[in-house]
Design a protein that fits this description.
13 helices; Rossmann fold; four-stranded antiparallel sheet; alpha/beta; seven-stranded mixed sheet
Length: 357
């Protein structure tokens, strides 16, 4: 079901593999968010990861960076299997940004970048408390590196500003600078242009190219298709947790399954089609059972009603017979005979009156 094509750039095709994710699967109880995804990123390459909302892109990122421990599969960085601990993944050489900005808002811009240097400094608690020559030298080196990164992203003039006072686009830049402070070999960007205008998007695009030119591989999630297809050497498409297709921008754009997935149109062999069919069959079976139960309950209610009406009719007949018997005992004749006697008396009286006349 997955289609893979080689990139046209010979440089990246022959470059060493930086990231190798093999058979990554992530389940949350009965929900499979990511299913058997394979992905590689080479040195000096920019790879895009796209898909509709809920496709499992950020979950896959979290599996790569140790925030989630994959249910199945493994993630390797430069041939070494990564431990499922975020700080160890960062120490190994993978840094990331987040879909929602996660800066220390009450710290300065420079301090935020310095936080990203913690995996590259050797000083411990006692060194920090005693503040000896070694600590001061390391701190000066970290500040120098942090200022270089701020210059690189265009924020050197705002080093002493509080992070919360920066405009949205500059906060995104600061988050990238903080990630770069750990000197990664692979940078993961989760929707870096979300909420940006066209000018800010172009600036971010230039920044990512500049990062790649520094020898840092980039894996980026983005919903802006114009941005992603212009930026990336290869693009992989996730749909319902499965990798649907991988290749160049031209290959992905021309794949009918990708268009159908974004438009919500079903297609043959779509991920989750079997599960959907099972659910529909189960729903139809449940509806049939409910209808059968309703019919049985209605029939039972009808039988009960008829059974209740039969004793009532019998009681009414018995009451009528009892009344007739009482009337015969009192008047010597049934109550139905009274009108006949009255008619006979009237006829006799009329005859007597005629004779007298």
């Amino acid at each position: 079901m997955t289609t893979t094509t080689e990139t046209g750039a010979a440089k990246t095709a022959t470059a060493a593999t930086v990231l190798d994710a093999s058979g990554v699967t992530m389940r949350f109880g009965g929900l499979t968010a990511v299913r058997n995804v394979d992905l590689t990123v080479r040195e000096g390459e920019i790879v895009g990861l796209i898909g509709p909302n809920g496709a499992g892109k950020t979950t896959f990122f979290n599996c790569l960076t140790g925030l989630y421990v994959p249910t199945e599969g493994q993630v390797s960085y430069k041939g070494t299997v990564l431990p499922p601990k975020p700080h160890l993944v960062t120490q190994a050489g993978i840094a990331r940004t987040f879909q929602n900005i996660r800066l220390f808002s009450n710290m300065t811009v420079l301090e935020n970048v310095l936080v990203g240097r913690h995996t590259r400094t050797k000083e411990g608690l006692w060194s920090a408390l005693l503040r000896g020559p070694g600590f001061k030298k390391a701190e000066a080196a970290s500040r120098e590196r942090a200022m270089e990164l701020l210059e690189f992203v265009g924020l050197a003039s705002k080093a002493e500003h509080l992070a919360r006072n920066l405009p949205y686009g500059e906060q995104r830049k600061l988050e990238i600078a903080r990630a770069l402070a750990s000197d990664p070999g692979l940078l993961l960007l989760d929707e870096p242009t979300a909420g940006m205008n066209q000018s800010e998007t172009r600036t971010t695009e230039e920044l990512v190219f500049a990062i790649r030119d520094r020898g840092i591989a980039v894996l980026v999630i983005e919903h802006d298709m114009k941005f992603i297809f212009k930026l990336c050497d290869r693009v992989a498409v996730l749909v319902q947790g499965e990798k649907l297709v991988e290749g160049t921008a031209e290959v992905v754009q021309g794949d009918e399954r990708v268009v159908a997935a974004y438009l919500g149109t079903p297609y043959e062999g779509a991920p989750g089609a079997a599960e959907v069919a099972e659910v529909e069959a189960a729903e139809a079976h449940a509806e049939a059972e409910a209808a059968a139960e309703a019919t049985a309950e209605a029939a039972e209610a009808t039988d009960d009603a008829e059974a209740e009406d039969a004793p009532a009719d019998a009681d009414a007949d018995a009451d009528a017979d009892s009344d007739d018997a009482e009337a015969e005992a009192d008047g010597g004749a049934p109550a139905d005979a009274a009108p006949a006697d009255a008619d006979a008396a009237d006829e006799q009286h009329s005859t007597t009156e005629g004779d007298s006349k």
